[in-house]
Amino acid sequence: xxxxxxxxxxxxxxxxxxxxxxxxxxxxxxxxxxxxxxxxxxxxxxxxxxxxxxxxxxxxxxxxxxxxxxxxxxxxxxxxxxxxxxxxxxxxxxxxxxxxxxxxxxxxxxxxxxxxxxxxxxxxxxxxxxxxxxxxxxxxxxxxxxxxxxxxxxxxxxxxxxxxxxxxxxxxxxxxxxxxxxxxxxxxxxxxxxxxxxxxxxxxxxxxxxxxxxxxxxxxxxxxxxxxxxxxxxxxxxxxxxxxxxxxxxxxxxxxxxxxxxxxxxxxxxxxxxxxxxxxxxxxxxxxxxxxxxxxxxxxxxxxxxxxxxxxxxxxxxxxxxxxxxxxxxxxxxxxxxxxxxxxxxxxxxxxxxxxxxxxxxxxxxxxxxxxxxxxxxxx
Length: 380
Ligand SMILES: Cc1cc2nc3c(=O)[nH]c(=O)nc-3n(C[C@H](O)[C@H](O)[C@H](O)COP(=O)(O)OP(=O)(O)OC[C@H]3O[C@@H](n4cnc5c(N)ncnc54)[C@H](O)[C@@H]3O)c2cc1C
Fold this sequence. Notes:
Blueprint: H1 7-24, H2 28-34, H3 39-47, H4 66-79, H5 81-100, H6 103-114, E1 120-124, E2 140-144, E3 147-158, E4 163-173, E5 182-187, E6 194-196, E7 210-221, E8 225-226, H7 232-267, H8 270-273, H9 276-305, H10 311-336, H11 338-341, H12 347-357, H13 364-379
Parallel strand pairs: 1-4, 2-4
Antiparallel strand pairs: 2-3, 3-7, 4-5, 5-8, 6-7
The protein binds flavin-adenine dinucleotide.
């Protein structure tokens, strides 16, 4: 598919690229070494509207659509995947709140993210014993009198230590729903009973914050349900369809950055630039990058047009772009030999950052299952 960005989309992409070049890329290596959370950068990006690119201006968003959002994530993610993934999750949380939240939930919590009051919002689905199999969650919410009591543990939660809102999935036990259907809750992180574990030390994306959250009989108001009791699983899957476009856009950014880094080395090293094998490999990898970019834009366009389901396309874009980012970064290290593993270039960081994208918001194996199930239903 051919996609010409509109002037408005181009403006978002350009502003994201300029900000990334001036404020994000120059400190990416340092952040990788120190694991420092990018609070300042996220605040500045929020001030530019980039925490709600596809969110209504009423709540501090840009209303610029999904394609514009994708380009912004690619630009920021190319400069530093840690900032890119945090921005991606924040946008996802804002969109879910806008789509399913009550007026009170939207007005209270979306601006906390879009105005940069907090580092972001967290999507609390995974648990120590359930990730791919989200339905196997153990966290429960019991309705008592006029409130809910949430009890359980959520693991691997992005931005958990810096969030202004938690979207928490739990099995909700209510007199009208005794089977405990999966339900999403909007929870203020300052609520008593919530504790935040230590930041995980990951192989990549060191500047993104990943923590365990413990909910010890946390009392939240009756109106904390997001959407309706029992609709939580559907809300999570719809959110992840959009989230996967964000992760795929990030992966495109990482892969593009790696090719740019390699090109700089090759162009200044005659032995490499005159080596036909090296040059041919760059052509091959660039072709893969373009294919990934097309799949991401295709999924983003479908979501933006709201005329079609895009579950399959979002999963295909996610698995293809993230696997491609890994292939490209690793093959470039192989191609450049010792120069590829030096910290002077960011290639070795990009290899590590790319690998992480293949896990969250559904592993590659799970994306293939999602794609196949959707396809088999169509072909039945
Ligand atoms: C850096 C990072 C940030 C994260 N951020 C968040 C977050 O903000 N919120 C959140 O809720 N979660 C988050 N996660 C969790 C992430 O979504 C899960 O780790 C992921 O979904 C995999 O779940 P799991 O860890 O339980 O692994 P498992 O589901 O146990 O999977 C282990 C392996 O088995 C494979 N597998 C599992 N089931 C199948 C199957 N049916 N067919 C084929 N293969 C299968 C998987 O692909 C994987 O390779 C994050 C994870 C990481 C690493």
